[in-house]
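Budget justification, computational time. The allocation requested in the original proposal was used primarily to generate structure tokens for proteins on the priority list. As evidence of use, we reproduce two of the resulting records. The first is shown immediately below.
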Amino acid sequence: MEEAVRDGVAEQRERLMESFRIYGGHYAELSRRFAAWLGLHSTDATAVLEIAAAEERGTPLSPARLSERISLSTGATTALLNRLEAAGHITRAREHSDRRIVTLRSGSHIQERADEFFGPLAHRLDATMSPYPPQFLEQVEAFMAELNATLDSHLTEQDGLPPRSSRNLDGRTP
């Protein structure tokens, strides 16, 4: 009996992970479509969204933090920011008392375009979540925070591993 219960839980976890994979695919496709809609490369659009979202949260990004968020080297991030700034999509400002710190801000048209593109989806998502009680949504939020922390931890551990091409098939470094 106990084994059957465990099997049911394992199957449920597999279904849940498959749902996350599907959601991730949808999110990636939505990001790709937003980039195309803006006429930007997907990495540039992702950067613009990260900058705008951070501003909305009241925690604007620095170039270094953006680099971490979108997994680009500092050099690649600088080139990306140069493109976005030249196109008027972002600005770099020195707002901090320490004038060495650069703050990234999105152009006003970016927020308008993002609202235009994502607004209908936001309304649909709100409608989808509205029947659920706040306590349930808090549990989902906590669960997602734990999953994200687990993924962050795993990715951080992998940062120290050599690329697969420089390891033997058994996983050891030559």
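The second record produced under the same allocation is shown here.
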Amino acid sequence: MSSRLLRFEDWTSPVPPVRREVLSALPHPDEGEPPLLFVPGLGHGGWAFREHWLGHVASRGFAAYALTPRERGSLRAYVHDVVQVAAGLPRQTVLVGHGTGALVVAHALARYPARAAVLAAPVLEGWPALGAALRANPFGTLPALFGGALKLNRKQLFGAEAPDAYAERLTPTPSAVARSLFTAPAPAAPAGSPPVLVVGSPDDRVVTRKALDRTAARYGGAPLLFPGMGHDLMLDAAWRDPIDAILDWLVKELADQRHSGS
């Protein structure tokens, strides 16, 4: 096994076990396609994907799973949970991370040889994202700099048409958890060189267009953009557009992999 996949600290200081919440939507019939594992960002749980994307993914023939982050975890613990859940699925998995969940996926890719990966509205650059949060939501962000909780708000995440119920479901993030993500080191190169797609919106109040360009360039491409959408692509009124584009890209990548025999 590659040394990148097995770390010394995993033996000397293992991540504490936890009961994980994994939501799912399964296709009928199962045509043997790789499953998709969705990883939410700060303040969100698996519910954010269950609202629209999980069922839609299943309707297109892919098994879909969404992992809710453990309470009071850390980047290392979140990565551990993603790798463990992915390794427990019946087929080599496609990892899809949103927001800081994309950061978790980027780090998990160095530990788990994913079939492919999608980074949606990715927060891979902590300090620029923190600066954007301070501008868009100073009262919810400042407390996190002094030991309080980080509280995201509707303006940061949603378009005008999003139901109020979405904002009401957001959970405060403890300062230590937010700090572990915003100060995270750059992720290592993915194991196995899977194809990686970056998607986002130029109108995102959390992730700038330049940050999207830099993240996509890191993985050898350009971002797929959806103008007019907010940060939470999966909860936007136009939620169907990005997930259909993601699945269309994935279908093409899988066909190319089969043609090349990989």
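A brief technical remark on that second record: The first strand starts at residue 21 and ends at 25.
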